[in-house]
Every structure is written in C-alpha cells, then in structure tokens.
Amino acid sequence: MAKANITQEFCNGLLNEQRSQLEKFTDIKLPGFQVRVTPKNKISFYACARLAGSQRRLDRKVGDLGKITLSEARKTARRYIVMMENGEDPYKERIEEGRKKSLNVVANEFLCTYVEKKVKPRTAEEYRRHIKKEILPRFGKIMVADIELRHLRKIHNELSDHPVKANRILATFSKLLNWAETEQYRDVNSNPTKLVKKYKEEKRVRRLSLDETKRLNVGLNKYKAVNVYFVALIKIILLTGARRDEIRTLKWEYINFQHKQLELPDSKTGKKVLPLGDVAIDILGSLPRQFDNEYVFCGHSVGRPMVNVRKPWLELIKLSGIEHVTLHDLRRTYASALLEQEVHLTVISNMLGHKSTKTTERYLGVSQTSMRKASNLAEILIN
Fold first, then answer.
1. Closest by CA position to 235, among listed 299, 348, 316
2. How many CB atoms lie within 10 A of CB 248?
3. Given phi > 0 = left and psi -120 to 50 = alpha, else beta, which region is 28?
4. What pLDDT, on a 0 to 100 scale, did the predictor assign at position 367?
5. What pLDDT, on a 0 to 100 scale, did the predictor assign at position 383?
6. Of 11, 85, 21, 2, whose CA–CA distance to 51 is shortest?
7. Do the Cβ atoms of 202 and 302 come closer than 8 Å?
8. Tens of pLDDT along 139-181?
C-alpha cells in the first residue's frame, strides 16, 4: 500500500486523477489512517489497526470526504486506532444498536439504500411488493437479529398454495437478510433461508399454436378500435421476442429506422440491439406520435408509457377465444416459431437476449410439433 502525507491538497489532487480500480493510501504521520478512492473518485477515510489480544485486523470506516472534513476524519481515526489498540472495537456500540433494529426499519433501509440504487426497476418493484405486502405484515416488529428459521418456514408454508410465489418471496427475504449481515445487523453467515426446502415448480411450456396465433391476429384487428398502441405493442413483442417491459417502455430515440433495429440502452441483460423486420418497421412507422410523449406506446397519463397492460391483454385473449396464456408466452411462441423454421439455437438465444444457449434450451423445451416430426421419421423402421 502506498504511503502519503494525507493533506487537503493531496485529497484534491486525487479528485483530478483517473483510475481503473480502488486505490489506498496510508498516512505517514498517523499510521493506520487511510484514504481510499474509487474509480468514480469517491474518497473515504478509514482507521486500521490490529485488535489487541487477537489476530484480527480491523478496518473501520470513519466517513466520506464531503460529509466529514479531513481534520474531523483524522481526529476520529486517531480515537478509533487507540480504541483498537486497547482491544475495543469502535463499532461495538454501533453494532449493538443495529442489532436492536426492527425488521421494519432495516427493510426500509434496504429498499432505500440498496434496492433503489443498485437493482433493476422490475426486480426492485418485486422486492418492494414482497417486503411490504408479505414479509413486513408478518414479521415487521421483530428485531432483525432475531429472525430465525421458524419465521422463514412459517411464511413459506403459509404460501404453499402458490409455490412459485412462495419461492420468490423466500429469495427476497434471503437477499434482505444477506444485506443485513453486510450492515452488521446480524451475525455473518446467519441467514437460515438455505435450510428451507423450496417447493417444486412446474416448468411453464405454454406457447400459442398456429390456430391460436391466427385467432389472436383476428382479435388484434378488432381491438384496434379500442387501443391502437396496445395492438402495436403485442405485434412488436410477437415479431421480436422481446420482454414485455423492453417494448412497453420503448422510446422513439431507441428506434434506428435507418438500420432497422431497436437500440436498447438497458435490459435485463444489459445493453441490447434487436433487429427489426420490414413488418415491424412498418408497424412502428405508422404509429401516431404524441408531441409531448417520448414513449412509443403511450399511456393515459401525459408523457408516460402504457402502464396497465394486463387488463387489455385479458380483454384481447377473451375476444380471440384463447385461454390460459400470458404475455410472456408470446416470447416463447416467437422462439418456438424460429426453432420450427430450423433457425440455429445460437441465433435464437441472441435474439432473446439469453447469456447462454443452455438457458434457451431450458426455456423452449421440446415442442409437440418437433416430437411429431421425430415420430414420423421413425416410420422408416417398418417401411
């Protein structure tokens, strides 16, 4: 670790430099006093020393530059170092206070400081729903350090009629407890969710048959009189295999008409480019633009995208005479159609935005049409 005379001038100099990784500097005047700077030029102060009577070396954060001055940081660091050299953890009181926090308080911290800043919107929405509607009503008043295996089994058992939902809520609970450990609100490796046996989930393989896609298209033509934007949204999903929210929140600036592609700055798997066929280009090009709305599929609120797609979807499939099909099944229908046309699995995987063809294989399964073709090929055995 580099040594430096940590002064205000030195810290200001760090802000003017570029770096690709975390850098640490220890003070030549006060051993154990450190300054750390991230690639985004966030400067933090730390006090580091070996805890007397043990082999443990503690790194205790003092504060961030901007929230605390250099002189305040040096003064606090000196106090922390003396405490550690005398066998006392400066965070002991803070840790003890943290462990007295209720799950209500910790869950709200988790949502505000971690979920809102580091989790993709759709996942964040799911976390909030699970925590506020299922977890906190049951256990919100319990201290987070006191959450045990019995609590996790309780919520999992109570949701046994909805196995997929129960498993997802258990996963959210696990994420929350893991975060609580990093904040020292619980003991390290104390998360008991791994001891709860998850329910077996039936793999969904629903996709539209050729007859159902014909009926859906008839229904779409009828539904144009109700909502032209929703009809276009469904057609673009069918033509691209994109995820619902990738299309629902599509902005005009993401459409490259010249190169016939969607250029999504973010998706479930990061930045993504989706090629568009001529029919998709015609559908998008014919949609009416609203001058005060940057979104392609406009909602009822000014300047906002379509929000509620479930209600019109249920109306559409009823109108089309189709049952037990979800919007996400259109994505599987798209992939299956490509597979039936003998498009290579790698191409399908790329179109879907899967990181691995293994994911695509699990996702598609084996269609009835493919199995029927295989059965017909076996006829050579008796001819």
1. 316
2. 22
3. alpha
4. 54
5. 53
6. 85
7. no
8. 999 999 999 999 999 999 999 999 999 999 999 999 999 999 9
For the chain, give percent helix, strand, coil, nearest 5. Answer: 50, 10, 35
Contact 205, 196 (CB under 8 A): no
- DSSP class of residue 290 equals P
Say what the alpha-carbon torsion angle 262, 268, 270, 275 is, to the nearest 10 degrees: -20
Give CA–CA dist 102/191, Å, rounded.
16
How many other CB atoms are there within 10 angstroms of residue 312's CB atom?
18
Please choose, from the candidates 19, 177, 174, the residue with its C-alpha nearest in 3D space to the C-alpha of residue 103.
177
Number of residues assigned to the chain = 383
In the chain, which residue ranges form alpha helices assigned H by DSSP? 8-15, 70-85, 92-98, 103-109, 116-118, 121-130, 136-139, 149-158, 163-182, 210-223, 228-240, 244-248, 278-286, 310-320, 328-340, 345-352, 357-364, 368-377
Q: Which of 19, 75, 76 is nearest to 42 (CA)?
A: 19
Q: What is the distance between the alpha carbons of residues 6 and 114, in angstroms, rounded to a whole number? A: 31
Place of tokens 């016939």: 260
* DSSP helix/strand/coil, 248: helix
Q: Are 156 and 195 in contact (CB under 8 A)?
A: no
Statement: residue 381 has pLDDT above 60: no
Chain position carrying tokens 């790329």: 350
For the residues 265-272, what does the mean pLDDT come to?
80
Q: Tell the residue number behind the tokens 């144009």, with chain if given.
A: 224
What confidence tens digit (pLDDT) does each residue in 122-139 have?
889 999 999 999 999 999
CA distance 28 to 132: 49
| Structure tokens, 248 | 């629902």
User: Beta strand 57-64 with 43-50: parallel, antiparallel or unpaired?
Assistant: antiparallel
Q: Is the pTM value of this prediction over 0.70?
A: no
Closest CA to 167 of 199, 189, 190: 199
Per DSSP, helices labelled H in 16-54 are none
Distance CA 59, CA 81 (A): 10
Residue 365, pLDDT above cutoff 80: no
pLDDT at 96: 82
